[in-house]
Amino acid sequence: MADEQRRERKQFEPPPWEKEAFEAFAAKRAEQEAAERATAEALTALIEPEDKAPVTADMLAAELAAAMKAKADAAAAEAAETIEAGEAVTMPGATPAVPDDKVVAAMMLELSQEDASDANSAKIVAWVASGVTAVLGLAMVIGGLTLAARAQGQNAAVIGSAVLTVFGLIFGGMAAWVWISSNRVRGR
Question: Which listed residue, of 13, 31, 40, 168, carries a Cα 20 to 30 Å from 50's Cα?
Answer without folding.
Answer: 31
